């Protein structure tokens, strides 16, 4: 789908091309050697997201790692991109995510478009209500 607005996450890297046998701890240990990985407040685990196939549940060999600061993310790219990690040459770059805050009523991601359309409908109803009450 084209036209989606993406926002660069300056503190998060996207890693691809990894061995599919790796788990979150393997990834956190390796990438944690270059900087402090942010802790998830809810789970109290390091913020590493391993992408898995929705049907099989097996790793896709891709992950995001979120650092405490943007400098660590840049260092990880410089240090690890194009290098061997457990038998595979990996690609490391800054992660991106969908920008759910722009685009008004357009969009169609998981929540972005639906929330925007709902907000527009509510705003439209409120504006219509104000017009009706002020005209009376």
UniProtKB/TrEMBL annotation:
InterPro entries: Nucleotide-bd_a/b_plait_sf, RBD_domain_sf, RRM_dom, TET_fam
GO cellular-component term (any): nucleus
Record bears the keyword Nucleotide-binding: no
Keyword RNA-binding in record: yes
Cleaved signal peptide residues: none
SUPFAM superfamilies found in the cross-reference section: RNA-binding domain, RBD
Pfam families: RRM_1
Domain RRM positions: 11-97
Alphabetical UniProt keywords: Nucleus, RNA-binding
Domain of life: Eukaryota
Main location group: nucleus
GO terms (BP aspect): regulation of DNA-templated transcription
Recorded GO MF terms: RNA binding
Record's subcellular location: Nucleus
The protein's name: RRM domain-containing protein
Organism: Callosobruchus maculatus (Southern cowpea weevil)
Organism taxonomic ancestry: Eukaryota, Metazoa, Ecdysozoa, Arthropoda, Hexapoda
């Amino acid at each position: 789908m084209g036209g989606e607005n993406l926002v660069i996450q300056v503190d998060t890297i996207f890693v691809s091309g990894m061995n599919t046998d790796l788990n979150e701890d393997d990834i956190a240990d390796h990438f944690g050697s270059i900087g402090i990985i942010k802790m998830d407040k809810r789970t109290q685990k390091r913020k590493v997201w391993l992408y898995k196939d929705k049907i099989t549940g097996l790793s896709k060999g891709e992950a995001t790692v979120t650092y405490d600061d943007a400098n660590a993310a840049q260092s990880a790219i410089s240090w690890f991109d194009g290098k061997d990690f457990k038998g595979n040459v990996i690609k490391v770059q800054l992660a991106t995510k969908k920008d759910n805050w722009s685009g008004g009523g357009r969009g169609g991601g998981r929540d972005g478009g639906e929330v925007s359309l709902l907000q527009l409908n509510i705003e439209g109803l409120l504006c219509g209500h104000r017009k009706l009450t002020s005209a009376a």
